Amino acid sequence: MCSINTSATSSKDEKSKRLFWVVAQNCNTSAETAIETTQQALQTVTSTVEGINNTRDTIRETEKRIKRLGERSQDITGVVNLINTIAER
Is residue 28 situated within a structural domain? Predict the structure, then answer.
């Protein structure tokens, strides 16, 4: 009878080991998936930051061009006023 109990215990131990192994494999798979997802998220964030920086640079360049356009517009207005003044004489 002692040998039957030992055999039953051994079988339970074997099942427990297999169950722990399956759980460990599942944990490993979940960890790998989490790492991959995190890496993809990092790439997305990095890409977004680069896009924001590019947009900021474009806005700065556009701002400079608009400022120059405003200055030229004032120059043209001055020339037009001068022409009108001369034409009125």
Answer: no
pTM: 0.60
Phi, psi for 21 (deg, rounded to 5): -65, -45
Q: How many domains does the chain have?
A: 1
Q: Is the pLDDT of residue 3 over 70?
A: no
Tokens matching residue 86: 């001369």
Within-domain flag for 23: no
- pLDDT of amino acid 9: 74
In a domain, residue 60? The reply is: yes
How high is the mean pLDDT of the chain? 93
- Residues 11, 3: Cα–Cα separation, whole Å: 12
